[in-house]
Design brief:
The protein has strands at residues 2-6, 9-17, 29-39, 45-56, 61-67, 75-76, 81-90, 94-105, 110-121. The protein starts with a strand and ends in a 6-residue tail after the last strand. Strands 4, 5, 6, 8 and 9 form a five-stranded antiparallel β-sheet that branches. It has a four-stranded antiparallel β-sheet with strand order 1-2-3-7, with no helix packed on it. It is mostly beta strands.
Length: 127
């Protein structure tokens, strides 16, 4: 699991290969990832939007931007946690994801929280 902390906002991510939805002979590899968010600061924070950068081992990069996560814009009081699961697909058996969440405090301050870089890999591809 990879973890990053920005201004007291902790983001941890773990990824999984999903073979039952993948078609390697068609260059279609599906991955799921679980994100754990924790407000370690002293202000209430809301996740407003996301910006993902997804790169496969061929060097192909995609960017995904949008409001919230999984249809929500969660609000976390100090000490609160939130978790969600989502997914992505690649044209190769190995890649990475990273990015930022755009956050806003209850006092109106905005900042970009780092999403740590994590690996998407078919088991056995990376030793």
């Amino acid at each position: 699991m990879e973890t990053a902390v920005t201004q007291g906002f902790e983001v941890s991510v773990e990824s999984f290969y999903v073979p039952e939805h993948s078609e390697p002979d068609q260059e279609h590899y599906v991955f799921a990832y679980r994100v754990y968010l924790k407000n370690k600061g002293d202000q209430t924070l809301q996740l407003i939007s996301r910006h993902w950068i997804i790169t496969d081992s061929t060097g192909e990069t995609h960017q995904v931007k949008g409001e919230g996560v999984v249809g929500e814009q969660p609000v976390l009081l100090p000490g609160e946690e939130y978790e969600y699961m989502s997914g992505s697909h690649l044209r190769s058996p190995l890649g990475t994801m990273h990015g930022t969440y755009q956050m806003e405090s209850s006092e109106g301050a905005k900042f970009d929280a780092e999403i740590p870089c994590f690996t998407l890999a078919v088991p056995g591809v990376v030793n």
